[in-house]
Specification:
The chain folds into two domains: 33 residues; 110 residues, Immunoglobulin-like (Sandwich), CATH 2.60.40.420. The longest helix has 22 residues. By secondary structure, the chain is of the alpha+beta class. It has a four-stranded antiparallel β-sheet with strand order 4-3-6-7. It has a three-stranded mixed β-sheet with strand order 1-2-5, with no helix packed on it. Strand 1, helix 3 and strand 2 form a beta-alpha-beta unit. It has five helices and seven strands, in the order ααβαββαβββαβ.
Length: 171
């Protein structure tokens, strides 16, 4: 019985909201003769305020590359928005005698794993040797959040801030 009352209350709320929003529209108040359903009644071609650009090639961390001790969350916020078919380039030094703290790139499955740096269900997309030279490239080709993290040192690098996420959008 309580569920039915809640459904009725929700339905009434939606109807009242639609009525209030619709009646506050000036064109609605003038009647259907003033409603303009045409796509483009100005007889000018549609122009996007920002012309469509081609996909970008974005180096993670810019000149700092993919390294320990850098704030990648801040970097992602500063470099947003990210778009479909943008390519993220992860550059990092491969393991060597002078580089005793190598890096990798993991794609985490969800926000919870990202927040906790839980790598159990993560997919390694670049191992410790793939970041040298021109770097490892990852194309944002789906409309979904991408959660990236360094998986080295049993997640210590991730817990220390070597992680970020992006949500590509339409151009």
């Amino acid at each position: 019985m309580g569920l039915i009352c809640k459904q009725w209350l929700l339905s009434i709320t939606i109807i009242v909201t639609l009525f209030v929003l619709g009646s506050s529209n000036a064109n609605f108040q003038k009647g259907p003769q003033s409603w303009k359903f045409e796509f483009n009644y100005t007889n000018e071609p549609f122009r996007h305020p920002k012309p469509i650009q081609s996909s970008r090639r974005i180096t993670i961390g810019e000149s700092d590359n993919w390294r320990f001790g850098f704030n990648y969350t801040e970097w992602a916020i500063t470099n947003a928005p990210f778009f479909f078919n943008d390519t993220l380039v992860f550059k990092f030094d491969p393991p060597s005698d002078t580089n005793i703290h190598p890096h990798s790139v993991y794609l985490l499955p969800n926000l919870w794993s990202f927040l906790r740096c839980d790598l159990r269900w993560a997919k390694r997309v670049a191992n410790t040797s793939q970041g040298g030279g021109e770097g490892f490239e990852f194309v944002l080709n789906k409309w979904k959040p991408y959660y990236f993290a360094c998986g080295e040192s049993n997640g210590f690098h991730c817990q220390s801030g070597m992680k970020f996420f992006v949500m590509p959008s339409f151009r």
